[in-house]
Structures are given as C-alpha cells and as structure tokens.
Design brief:
The protein is an alpha/beta fold. It has one domain: P-loop containing nucleotide triphosphate hydrolases (Rossmann fold, 3-Layer(aba) Sandwich), CATH 3.40.50. It is built from 14 helices and ten strands.
C-alpha cells in the first residue's frame, strides 16, 4: 500500500517529498542532502550572541524568497517590528552579494525614522509621515525595503508568548497556514525552551524539553513540514570553550528526536593554540567567523565543520561559507 501511495504521487508529478528546500547557505545545503526536508526537525544550538537568530531569520528569508514557499517565524524573544528592523539591516548589505559599504545598522535606521518625523513635525517637510514612505524615500533604506517587498507576503513573523503560545497553539496556526499555502510552509521557532508547556506539568527542565521537542517533531510529522528550532545551551555548556550537542538544555531528548543538529561556535574561541600563537594577527580576523558543526545528521555524515563570516551589526551572514581548514580544539581524528 505504501508503495502504491508513493507511486501515485510520482505519477501525479507530486515530487515535493523528494525535493529539499535549500537554506541558501553553502556548503550547509550540500552537507545535509540539499536543504530542509518535510517531516524533519532541525535544531540550531550555541552560546548567546553567537548569531543563532541572525542565521535562522536569514534562512527563513531565503526560503520565503522562493515564489512557492512560505516561512512561519515564531519568536519568543523579539517583537515583529524588531525582526522587521533586523531584516532591513540585513537587506541593506544584500546577501549573498554582501556590500558592507551600503550597510545600515539599527542605530542608523532609528535615526533616519526619528529625524524624518522631527522634520515633518517642525513643518520643514510635508511628507506623509508613514514608516513605509520614510523608508522608501530615503536613499539609504529604499533598496532594502524594495528587496523586502519581494517576499513580504510569504514571511510570516509572529511574537509568541512564553505564557500562552504552547505546542497546541503552534500546531493549530501551522495547520491553518498549511491549508492556505498547499503545505509549502517551513516553521521556525526562536527558541525551543521558551515554548509554553500546559496543561502538562513537567517535573524538571529535562522533562519540559522532552515534552517540547517531542511536540515539535510531532508537528513536523503530522503536518508534513520542516521545523527548524533554536536551542539554548545549559550552564555547563556556556562555561565550555566549545559547545556541543550534549551541552544543550535537555540534550538527551534533543539528540533522539532531532534529524539534524547544528552547533555554532566562534572560530577564534575554538582554534587550536598553534594557530593563535604562530599568527596572532590572522587569528584576530577569525573573530568574525562562526563555525557551524553538523553534529547529528540522519541522512548523511556528521561532525562536519564549516565556517561563515558574520556581519553582526547588519544582522547577516555571508552565506558563501567554506570548509574549516584549521585545526580546532577537541577535534577527534576521523578515520576514512
């Protein structure tokens, strides 16, 4: 019966189960079989401030840029307006081209908006005063807002509440989006440990994480969508020089339920001592590079390190990464 159902889909030309959704990050897509697949749960972990939200929002944007795909971004950390401001800053450097000379920072964006409103208030400018008008008419922000308009209808941003937005609410919202979009939705959660857990009563943090991660995997399987979730590290992990999957809060459940787990570390922090000692200037340049390690990969090789340059002030990564060439701390020798 399963073969017949799969056969009928292929005959109808419904190949969506066989075609992954690229994240737009290279070589990540190559390492994970071409991109994100339906029914998979992908976890992204790392220390605070490493760029997890930046990477996740950028991948959501990359997916929403495809005319047939929608991205549903649930944030327990930031308001929709703040996420929109981050996207504007990222679009100002236009990944993957990355032109930092035209980049705007949050501070610049706020100054542009406040200065323009002040001019109108003082009667020196008779502009409409709307945020869209200000951003469209300013030469520094107009290219970014024009790029955002291309996918604005397909990137759904939502401020979630740690007290109210539980797994059932996420599942219901995702199901409605699936109905409206023909199932072409990727769900992003920022971040896993903040999802509300009720009416269940977890005994401790590990129990809570187990309930949540099982619930997210259930959403991926039952609604036939990819689910990408950020995960916070525990106290021990934050003390460690290099964070691993086992440093994430509730790690045993995360390890079992996830299909792909990616861990981010700052390259400068995890370089082997030799590189820092012999070439300190070169080592300093690595501060702006983040190592992404595929620590779990159900469909391919694991423990693969790649690196991407981060432009933190513009909330963007250069998605054209590379394999890490240098020796990193606590590397294991992998025999081929």
């Amino acid at each position: 019966q399963i073969i017949h159902e799969a056969n009928d889909k292929v005959v109808r030309g419904d190949l969506v189960d066989y075609v992954p959704i690229p994240t737009g990050f290279d070589p990540l897509d190559g390492y994970i079989g071409g991109g994100l697949r339906k029914t998979e749960l992908i976890l992204l972990g790392g220390a605070q401030g490493i760029g997890k939200t930046i990477a996740t929002l950028q991948i959501a944007r990359n997916i929403a840029m495809r005319p047939d795909q929608y991205a549903f971004y649930l944030s327990y950390e930031h308001t929709e307006t703040h996420l929109m401001h981050r996207l504007l800053c990222m679009e100002s450097i236009n990944p993957p081209e990355i032109d930092a000379t035209r980049g705007i920072k949050l501070k610049d964006l706020y100054q542009i908006i406040v200065a323009q409103r002040a001019k109108e208030f003082m009667g020196r400018d008779s502009g409409a005063g709307s945020l869209q008008a200000i951003l469209r008419e300013n030469p520094r922000t107009s290219p970014a807002i024009a790029r955002m308009q291309k996918y604005a209808d397909r990137l759904i941003l939502l401020k979630a509440s740690p007290a109210v937005t539980n797994l059932r609410a996420i599942k219901e919202m995702t199901a409605r989006l699936c109905d409206a979009t023909g199932g072409n939705v990727t769900v992003f959660v920022d971040y896993l440990q903040k999802i509300a857990v009720h009416p269940e009563r977890p005994r401790d943090e590990n129990d809570k994480v187990t309930i949540i991660v099982e619930g997210l995997k259930d959403i991926a399987l039952s609604l036939d969508v990819p689910v990408w979730s950020i995960v916070a590290a525990d106290r021990e992990g934050l003390k460690s020089k290099r964070i691993h999957l086992y440093h994430l809060r509730g790690s045993s459940a995360l390890d079992y339920e996830s299909d792909i787990a990616i861990i981010m570390n700052n390259k400068y922090q995890i370089l082997a001592k030799d590189h820092v000692a012999f070439n300190p200037y070169n080592a300093k340049n690595f501060r702006n590079w983040v190592v992404w390690t595929v620590e779990k990969n159900r469909a391919g090789r694991a423990m693969l390190d790649m690196e991407f340059e981060i432009h933190g002030q513009h909330f963007g990564f250069d998605p054209r990464g590379q394999k890490v060439q240098q020796q990193l701390i606590d590397d294991k020798i992998i025999e081929n």
